[in-house]
Design brief:
This protein is an all-alpha fold and 131 residues long. The mean pLDDT is 77. Among the domains are: 44 residues, no CATH class; 44 residues. 0% of the residues are buried. It is built from 2 helices and no strands.
Length: 131
């Protein structure tokens, strides 16, 4: 359970840092007695403040208003129906093309196998082992 001790130490260290920055004591978070290590002291040596610099004669600009979300107008039922029918027809064309290509591939592969069965390649001579 080392991670619990590390977590408690991090919480204590963060709390000490917040107290040193704000200059006041925050309420202590409840911790298990004897399980939490004493808080570590943190010294803040410097604080850097970054401010937006504007030219003196320009008034502060208001944030641009967000544009409303554009929603497409609802389609008529006939338009939707024709779109679905067109997509189904396109899908069927693709399926027919895939089926045709599979059949052609199967036929060409079977033709090669039949040719290899009927016309086997010549056997190498018995004396040569290739080594």
């Amino acid at each position: 359970m080392k991670w619990i001790r590390e977590r408690d130490a991090l919480i204590a260290q963060t709390l000490a840092f917040v107290q040193s920055v704000t200059g006041r004591k925050e309420e202590q978070l409840p911790t298990e007695p004897a399980a939490a290590p004493p808080p570590l002291a943190v010294e803040v040596t410097s604080v850097v403040v970054i401010e937006e610099v504007r030219e003196a004669d320009q008034p502060p600009q208001a944030a641009p208003t967000p544009q409303p979300f554009q929603v497409a107008p609802p389609r008529g039922s006939g338009d939707f129906r024709s779109e679905v029918q067109a997509r189904v027809a396109n899908f069927r064309k693709h399926q027919e093309r895939f089926e045709r290509e599979r059949e052609e591939f199967c036929q060409s592969t079977l033709a090669k196998v039949r040719d290899a069965i009927h016309n086997p390649p010549p056997r190498p001579p018995a004396g040569s082992s290739g080594h």
